[in-house]
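Think of the structure tokens as a kind of shorthand, similar to the way a musician reads notation: each symbol stands for something richer, in this case the local conformation of the backbone. In the example below we present two proteins back to back. Begin with the first one, reading the sequence and then the tokens, and try to describe in your own words what changes along the chain.
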Amino acid sequence: MTVAELAAGCGFEVLCLPEPEREVDGVYIGDLLSWVMGRARQDNAWITIMSNVNVIAVGTLSDVSCILFAEGVLPEADIIETAKAKGVNLLVTPMPAYEAAIKLHEAL
């Protein structure tokens, strides 16, 4: 399933989608960035509530397919612009991380 299909199917809002055809093959939830770098897998959808520019760096290093901000967390415009420049897909949902993970799991 692609990030674009996942966003549409799950009702997640798209903040930026520079790589809409990127495949999603799993889910990782985490907010401790060093932990995410060591454990998130390539092509995972990463669910977080962290909203600083370091999230984009970790998403790039971990090569996740997208970053999903849970609980309605909205990153600032400069973070979205950095994600566009780095080719990182960003989505947002008002759902708690647990509920978003269940929705993602069911979709995949």
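Once you have a description of the first chain, move to the second and do the same.
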Amino acid sequence: MKQFAVIGLGRFGVSVAVSLARMGYDVLAVDTDAHKVEKIMDEVTHAVQADALDEEALKALGIRNFDVVIVSIGHDMEASILTTVMLKEMGVKTVVAKARTELHGRVLAKVGADKVVFPERDMGSRVARGLVSKNILDQIDLSPDFSILELVAPEEFVGRSLAESGIRKKYGVNILAIRRGSEVLISPGANQVIQEGDLLVAIGRNDRLQRLGGD
């Protein structure tokens, strides 16, 4: 089973650490603030007060042995960048770093971060989509032009099969799965009838997905 370490226990770091722990993974949470460490102690496998820039402290925690280390240091961009560099030099296999700005993200990528995430930007994008489109629940961007979208099945599709709905022909998108309560129908056939309350997982170009979502 993968082991994760989260360095920096702001809102994003806490959310990631607790979510991974609840999925059953071993999670080490690290922050310089003793109060933050104490608050999360019962939610994760281990929680430790330590300075992310103290290389010896990180080595003592066995940080290089973790499969993934998430650097979620908040406002201190310099500490975020230096911690990322240090982790890669120590031999950490995968470093995921939180960026506040595009420039911060580019620097993190150049110094070795395996993946850069923009939680504030991405959350803002999700909120905006939810405001302008009543049916869209979530969207995963695959590239600037393509995404995977989860949406509540529009009323006009209920009682019709996927073929009858014209989703592929009219909108040019493909349905990867249908979530129906606790059941998930993977790669549903053209004759699968859409029911009220179904959640459709679709893939396609962003402009066509937005049309499907009823923006």
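Compare your description with these statements about the second chain. The chain has a mean pLDDT of 88.
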